[in-house]
Amino acid sequence: MVIIIKVKNTRLHSPKRNRILEMIRASDKHPSADWIYEQMKKEYPGISLGTIYRNLKILEEGGLIYVASTGGEISHYDANPSLHHHITCESCGKIADIEYEIDTRIFNDIKAINGFEITSRRLSFQGICPECQLAKNEK
Q1: What are the pLDDT digits (tens) for 14-72?
Q2: How far apart, in whole angstroms, are the C-alpha atoms of residue 11 and residue 84?
Q3: Distance (Å, whole) CA 127 – CA 87
Q4: For the chain, give me the number of helices (H) and strands (E)?
Q5: Cα gap 105→37, rounded to integer Å
Q6: pLDDT digit string (tens) for 78-102?
Q7: Which of 10, 66, 104, 115 fits 81 for a cystine, CB–CB 3.0-4.6 Å?
Q8: CATH architecture for the domain at 83-139
């Protein structure tokens, strides 16, 4: 007797990959690959940082996560792939989502200025978070 098991998009699903996605979704931060690696080592002691990066790339290509660009060298991962923007604290590095609709007239202006047709957009802002502002004021 032969049993055939159908699996939807096996490339997106594996125990480790699912656990990485769970960690990103459970985090109220935008974790880095290093943070994910340190957490995963607790459950999978033999896991390598390369495995983390490969799985993050697969999750990104599958549309399950988004790489939040903060202008720094370290990539941070977001389990909310919907269109939204980010702000990064210049002092502590905290990244927060910005749920704000950008006036779409800017796209026509950009096209008029340089001829580019906007096909995708993500904005990243820098500033000082409330906690760092408070700490600065207390000094």
Answers
A1: 899 999 999 999 987 889 999 999 999 999 999 999 999 999 999 998 888 988 766 66
A2: 26
A3: 7
A4: 5, 5
A5: 41
A6: 888 777 888 888 888 888 888 788 8
A7: 66
A8: 2-Layer Sandwich (3.30)
* Residue 91 structure tokens: 């002092």
Residue whose token pair is 């699912």: 18
One CATH from 1.10.10.10, 1.20.950.20, 3.40.630.30, 1.20.140.10 for 1-80: 1.10.10.10
Among positive and negative, which fits the CA dihedral 65, 52, 27, 18?
Answer: positive
Closest CA to 16 of 50, 40, 46, 32: 40
Residues 30, 95: contact at Cβ < 8 Å? yes
The CA distance from 16 to 22, in Å, is 10
CB atoms within 10 A of CB 11: 10
Q: Where do we find the tokens 């340089």?
A: 114
3-state secondary structure of 105: helix
For residue 87, what is the enclosing H or E element? strand 85-89
